[in-house]
Amino acid sequence: MSSRFAGGNAYQRDTGRTQLFGPADGSNSLDDNVSSALGSTDKLDYSQSTLASLESQSEEQMGAMGQRIKALKSLSLKMGDEIRGSNQTIDQLGDTFHNTSVKLKRTFGNMMEMARRSGISIKTWLIIFFMVGVLFFWVWIT
Asked: Where does the record place it?
């Protein structure tokens, strides 16, 4: 190791090294042991029974996948119908709330107009309604 860094050039790159992750001596030992399945010279010979077996397995798996796809399609169609129905229900509920709001505003306006025309203040009307409420509550609990 001391001979490698001799002469004070420890900061310089080793000129014999050409690969980042290869050995330091420059040999290409990784390529010697690598074998490829595509580059092999062994001939693979499948018999007709093996090929038929593989094909039948493939057809079975394709059939099962087809059934699963049909089930998913059916499920997604049912989900779409449910979502559309829910959206219609929500729209109807919104319309109902709007109509109720309009009716309550109109009723409150009519009540305020009635109170103004009668000459009795709103405080008096509130006291009367409170007394009637207390009377109903008293009858309810006894």
From this structure: Golgi apparatus membrane; Endoplasmic reticulum membrane
